[in-house]
Amino acid sequence: MEHRALSRLAVPAVAALLALTTGCTGGTVQGRPGASGLRDPYFPKAGNGGYQVDHYALDLDYDPPPASGGGTPTSGQLNATAVITARAEQGLSSFNLDLSGLKVEGVTVQGEPARHNRTGNELTVRPAEDLKKGEVFRVEVDYGGKPKALVDADSSKEGWIVTKGGPDGGGAVAVGEPIGSMAWFPGNHHPSDKATYDITLTVPHGYEALSNGELRSRTDTGDGRTEFAWHSPEPMASYLATAVVGPYKVTTGKTASGVSVYNAVAPGEEAGSAGTLARLPEMVEWGSGRFGPYPFTTAGAIVLPKGSLTYALETQTRPVFPGAPQEEELVLHELAHQWFGNSVSPKSWKDMWLNEGFATYAEWLWAEDHGGAGAQKHFEAFLAGDTDVDEAADSDWDAFPPADPPGPEHISGNPVYYRGAMVLHRIRQEVGDAKFFDLVRGWAADHRHGNASTAEFTAYAEERTGHDLKKVWDVWLYGQDRPR
Ligand code: ARG
Ligand code: ZN
Fold first, then answer.
1. Is residue 352 lining ligand 1, measured as CB closer than 6 Å?
2. Residue 317 is part of a domain; what is its CATH number?
3. Which residue owns the Cα nearest ligand 1 atom 8?
């Protein structure tokens, strides 16, 4: 019966029908929709298929909300434009961007108005003309509204978070790990798609506006506002992008080897931050000696009002801290992420231990080089549950294998940090210091400004050191049982 029905259609109609199902007409490949997610093992809808972003130019105009309600109708309002330059990896009839909340006013692709619709956190864009495989294209999204904080799988907050302070009360901080960046700009929000950025923030007089990278200009717009143009010349995973607005105190400097330092501290946190931040330049130099050249042109820290967040985050070049960092190890940890996580980024959220294990191990190394308890002491303390050496030694550091967290709510769990660092120490025990530090530097150099997976790391470690490390992987990295 099916055949009879088909046979009644005119020949061109059959051809069109076939073209629809196969995506082909007369030999030329037509576009098809890009995937709405990259099937990350923990966040399957994060990111999008069919294209890779080269550059984001974000123009954000923000009115900080007053501290205690009220204000004008525009308080807390963001008016923004995102210009995204991307390359099609397939013929595309439509593609997605990740965006949570906010209102999309209009979208153009290659300067032509494009149809678009929203479903959940997916913004689907249908260009007037299909994009060809390999084509570099420009998408402009005009959007705005009151951006929101999102609740993470482990119930901490990310996205756009309103902070205390400011001439009229409030300020804001944007933090994206793992999927918070969709709360403030449309993008391919998965760490596997890194891009360069220009983030321009326009805020009322009296506010500072901070972001990643280099401050290119600071301009009085003539209507009571200041425009801050920040530029990130090195690729960045979108979860590491930040925007911070508030009445911050800015100080600048340089490290001994000439890396520029730009620090911003919230009112009231200056005294508490002074000691630890003063050591940042020295830490950059120390890291360059241990891990290889610092991967970025600029460094620094942003100290938020106390209580803004429950965690610090390694936002690229300029980590954010919730109040004055009490311990220099925390500043060192976020700095170490600049090599491990930010320059060498995870391929998927399953590879998180490559971020946190290395950053934690860096803290142990810093202590080792500065008269504190070294890596061996920390390693033994965890096995013995000795909290005198490390407060986390009696935590659930052994609860699951670092390379296999049991769910998205565990990707920032203790085993990812501490057992992850212990994996690195087990390698060092097997291969000795010379080969171990050669491995660490080689890893940072060979994947500089790229992405890498756990499987790539284990293969690389064995090849670089010439040791069979299968037991370390089986027991420490992937084994379900507590290692002994
Ligand atoms: N990557 C951050 C750090 O170790 C911590 C992020 C915590 N996020 C969370 N959802 N628990 O430095
Ligand atoms: Zn970390």
1. no
2. 1.10.390.10
3. 412
